[in-house]
Each structure stands twice: as structure tokens, then as C-alpha cells.
Amino acid sequence: MWLSYILGDAAIVGVLLLLVRKMELRPRLALPWVLFISPSCLWLAFRLSSYVPGLSIALQLLAAFSLSIAFSVLAVLFLFFRDPGRTPPPEPGTILSPADGKIIYIKMLDDDTFPIAVKKGRNVPLTEFTGDFFPLRQGLQVGIMMSYLDVHINRAPIAGKLERIKRIPGGFHSLKHMDSLLENERVFSVIAGPEVRVGIVQIASRLVRRIVPFVKEGDNVRQGDRIGLIRFGSQVDLLIPDRDSVEVIVRVGDYVKAGLTVLGRFKGPVA
Fold first, then answer.
1. What residue ranges of the chain are covered by domains with CATH 2.70.70.10?
2. In terms of DSSP bridges, do strands 186-192 and 115-119 run parallel, antiparallel, or are they unpaired?
3. Measured between alpha carbons, how far is 142 from 264 in angstroms, rounded to an integer?
């Protein structure tokens, strides 16, 4: 009997680990949960058998698996929809992260180019986001990938005025596919501050293609203010039109937090 429980526990852990990998969750957060929830739900199912006479081991294992999935979904939803209060660091001349997540690329952009991502060596441009209102010149692009466990409230990286908000409707696609960056819903915002103008691209991903803005064109925002929410897994890109004016201090692979992590510092005034 105990061998069946041990094998059942191993099977539940294996399935949950596959889901962790599929959803690209951070192991530091997901692994402790998996190792806790599986034996806990197995114990609950075992206790249930004392109140339900004749409950077979197979049904107990099925109950444990169902409870593990249910509690895991609730935990993900709780982490996803949380909105912790944050106070930006009191350091002048900085650009903060607009999103929680992992830095997946830091790219140098040339005139009239706007690659959102590089997949299998190919650039995927979003030319509808370029134009006179946001000249790239010699720009910088920082890509931030958000997992389901990250806070999905996006924040203003600088203080300034919302010069532009442009929504591009999209369909249900995964960011894993080349065409998804051209077809997923996305919102492009421009914030003009005293030192620099920055662009923010919010890209919706699979499951739910919904971006909820908290601001509108013409609004003034403080650094770290909430500007929107993306449901669910998603990506946020930060665009800086003149890379000579900003020193980026993060690296690919770093984990950043919206309104808290300093991505770059101004070298001087932007022309």
C-alpha cells in the first residue's frame, strides 16, 4: 500500500514539474510549492479514505492529483493578481523597470528599426510603432518576459506625460511562434519626461489576450505609478530612442521588478 502512495506521489510531482516547465515558471518559487503540495494533498486524500469506506487507493491518488492541480491553480491566480505597494528608489536620473520578470534581451537599434524579438535568427519588426512621434535614432530595446507567477501590474519607468497610447488588437497566439508578435494584442505607450522620452510595448500572450490600461493620453504620471495590467503570461519591452544618453546597468538573465529595479541611468540631457 505504501509503495502505491510513494509511486503516486512521484507521479503527481512529475506531472506538476512538467507543468512548471511548460509554463516557464521560476524554479526557485515553483519547486518548493510542488514538493509541498503533492504530499500534502496525498495526506488529505488518505485522511478522506477514513471517512469514505471502500475508497480505493486509485481513487485516493486521483483525489490527491485533483487537489494538487486545484490548489496550484489557486496559488497561481493569487500570485498573478496581487498588486503590492511599491516605493521607487529615491535616486534621481534613473529609468526603472516597467514590469516584473526576466531580462531576455538588450538590443541596440538603428534608425527605422523596431525588432520586438529575435527568434531563430530572424527579426520581427513592428513598423506600425515607428514614425515621427517616436524616432528611434540609435536606440535601446530591453525585453522583459513575465511568467504566470510574476506581478502583472506594469509601472511607469520615468515621470512624465503620456504622449501617446496606441492599441493593436490581436488574436490568441503564443509568444513561442514567430508570427505571434505581429498578431498578439499589444499596446504601445510613449512617456515624455524632462530628460528623455521612452516607449513601452505591452504584449499579451496566450490564454487571455487582454491589456487593461490604467492611464490615457495626456495624463501625467510619476515614476513607479501603475499604468496597466496584462492578462496573463506576457512580455514588456522598454524603448529608449537615444542609447548615448542612457547607461543600462542590467544584464540578460537578471530578474527585475516594476517600479523598483533601476534599468538605466541618464548620462546627460537628451537633445
1. 94-266
2. unpaired
3. 10
Catalytic one among 38, 68, 97, 234?
234
> Is 234 among the residues known to form the active site?
yes
Q: Which residues pair with 213 in a beta bridge?
A: 228
Q: CA angle at residue 201 from 120 to 74, to 5 degrees?
A: 90
Q: Rounded CA gap, 103 and 184, in Å?
A: 20
Q: Which fold has domain 94-266?
A: Glucose Permease (Domain IIA) (2.70.70)
Distance of alpha carbon 23 from alpha carbon 141, whole angstroms: 25
Total-model pTM: 0.79
Q: Considering the chain, what is the average pLDDT of its residues? A: 80
Q: How many CA atoms lie within 13 A of 103 on its CB side?
A: 22
Cell numbers of 135, please?
A: 524616432
pLDDT in tens, 216-235: 999 999 999 999 988 765 78
The Cα 100–Cα 155 span in angstroms is 9
Cell triple for 16: 506538476
